Amino acid sequence: MPADPPRSSPFWAPHVHADRRPILLARGRIVAALRGWFAGQDFVEVETAALQVSPGNEIHLHAFAITLNASDGSASRRYLRTSPEFACKKLLAAGERRIVEFAHVFRDRERGALHHPEFTLVEWYRAGEPYETLMQDCAAILQVTARAAGAKQLTFRGRAADPFAAPERLGVAEAFGRFAGIDLLATLPGGKPDGLLFANAARAAGIRVADDDNWGDIFSRVLVERIEGNLGIGRATVLDRYPAALSALARPVQGPTQEPPRVAERFELYVCGVELANGFGELNDAAEQRRRLEEQMAEKERVYGERYPIDEDFLAALAQMPQACGIALGLDRLVMLATGASRIDQVLWTPIQE
User: Fold this and answer.
1) pTM given for the model
2) SS3 breakdown of the chain: % helix, strand, coil, rounded to 5?
3) Class for domain 14-167+235-347, per CATH?
4) Residue ranges of domains in the chain
């Protein structure tokens, strides 16, 4: 009977830790430098609760549920947050103007080179400022990170980017045309996603489409297969103006006519083909936000057979929240790019054992 294959050594094995330690120390320097930068920009660092009534209402994010037992013996369902967004927006409603959180967040069904069930988001908000300001923040943060790590380039799997070069700003529709030969906006007649139009355009571009793929499925496939690998090469890319249909928490961009908006104030930051951050001009229309969240949860139930509660307290706060912009940046991925790590486990002090 053959012997069981040897298990890889745990992270706490001294020889493994010795190999990982330089990267972990670089992580510490990066975190300290980022905290200093945010303090210099008059941000208040906050700490919000990890346990929430709702973990977030995105279709494809999966949360860990727990049972909260009260002293009277009653029990209620709570979730580990997938993002601190709802709690941070409540603080904006309370009167905070610039806040940042280095937040531990939790997502189920995620494990891979760039994914881990528990990871850290740097999430920050600016009240009363345009969302383009977040793009400037991102450019500054790449420079601060590189200096803290002593890195002249950010790298991942053979790709490199200059953290000191001004990021490219590229519209999502322009990227689809440039890299996939698809007129994305033509698949959004009247602002509504048309899956058949998109399927035909994708097939014409040589992209496989399943019969049951909807508009969002096709968008994701084209993005992954044709676009992401071209972004953030040589310098960072700000992929801007996402379709409104994929931007449930963002303000729509109203065009010159009164037609329904097709794009929203949403961008993603890419470096070396890796998505680092997701930023918004924040929607603060509570009624519209409720409609969008309910729509998201109906789709989640259709696809996955589950849905999460809507945080009524969040919607009440949203009605009081000033105009603001906000962004979430994956700290662990940023450390990976600055240190040349190939897997997220390498930059975590105590990764979860598989």
Assistant:
1) 0.94
2) 40, 20, 40
3) alpha beta
4) 14-167+235-347
